[in-house]
Structure formats: structure tokens, C-alpha cells
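pinned: reference chain
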Amino acid sequence: MDSVEWETLGMEVAGEAEDGEEALEFALREAVDIVLVDMNMPIMDGLTLMKRLKAERPACRFVIITGHDEFAYAQEAIRLGVKDYILKPVNSGHLQEVLQSVKQELDEQQVQSHYLKQASEQIERNIPLLRQRFCQEWIQGLVDDGNALEQLEFLGLPAGFPAELGIVRWPETASNQTLMKESERQLYLFAIENIVSELLQDTPHQVFREHTELIGICLWDNAPLEMAANIESAVQQYLKITVHCQIEEVPEGPGAMAAAYDACREA
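pinned: its C-alpha cells
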């Protein structure tokens, strides 16, 4: 082992153990990445050590060292996911090549884990936007029913089709369009969405903005009959603007969401 150029490999020896039991305790305590396993260790043999470590630290890599008479055990170890085996007496050059290969595999896995973690965090940050985009596409009939159920689960939305679909329309007058800046108009739209969400806080729902600036509402339980009127009243009271709200039941069958959306728009 002393002839291995550990620094060149970007590794350091964490320690050595006299038997399998000591090796297990040490490897778990120090959270090692690679273990060189002598198959014929006392107290706990190499196979048992690897099985125990694999259960506790699945990412740990093993390189086994064995004599010719232990070759059958080496084959079983490889089936456990061991990277490679080396026959005694150990050739330092061969060992260095094997360790280099294991190091490369670990480095690649670390990079992969980094990118996957980044992607997961990015998805988590964008879940609110993804939910809105999904609802937009659903009401336009761009999502088939089977795929919709999968996306609902992925996005953390209630399972199954909504019971009702609603829209909130803000009929701006020509003078409003002339006098109101786009930033102010968007501010009002977000304020309407917040009011809707507060009034529906006890009902599973998703508020979204569709492409014509209508505010859409997916409701997974039936809202109180007066909910549409309550939304109109609250927006008038707090924002001093007039909106029209329409809520329709989602029918059964293919294209149900698009049908409910059309019913809301035509009401």
C-alpha cells in the first residue's frame, strides 16, 4: 500500500483495521468513500463487512483483495456491486489503476448529484409557476387526462379532476386602459388573485392567470354557492374596482376542463 501514490490519486488513507468488525466500526464512524477489503479477515469476513456497509452506506465503493482459493467469494462480492478485485500478491500498479477508476466514478457521481440537486431545487422554486402553466394548458385542452393525473401528483396538487372551475374577469374601460400603467394593472391583477386565494383558503384550489389575463380558479371541492358574489364584493370593497366572477361545475368525460372553461367564459 505504501507504494500507491495517494496524493496523485487525490486520496488519503483514513486508516487501517485488523479485522472486519473493527473495519466496519471505523468505516461508519469516518464515513469513508472507498474500502479495500481483504476477503479473509478475522472475526468478520469480507463479504459480511461489505453487506453491512452497503446497507449503511450505499454509496461506498469496495475493492477486494483475495487469493486464488477465495475466487468464488470474489465473484459473489462482485455481484454485490464491488468495483473490482485484486489477486494476492498485490501489484501496486494494478491497484493504482483500479483506485483511479473508482475515483473517477465517484467524481462523476458527485458532479451528477450536484446537477440533480440543482435541478431539484430549481423545480422546487418554480413549482408555483409550473402549477399555473399546467392549469393554463389544461383548460385549453392541451393536456390529456392520463398525463394530467401524473402532473397533479408531481406538482403537489390534489389528485383527480377539480369539482369546479371558475374565472374572474376585470372588464377594464377604455379610460382605464389609457390612464393605467401596465405595472399598475398587473399589481391589481395580483391583488385580485390574493383576495381570491384568501377567500378560498378552506377549499383546495389553484389560482392561475390564463393567456387573455382572465384569472382562473381550479376548485377540488365545491365552493359555497355565494363564493362568486363574495369575490366580486371583496374586490370592490378593497380595490375599488368591479370584477365579474363565474364558477361552473366540471362535467365528466374527455375534455371536461376545457368544457367547464368555455362555460365560464360564455356565462
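why pinned: The chain has two domains: 6-90, 126-266. The longest helix spans residues 92-139.
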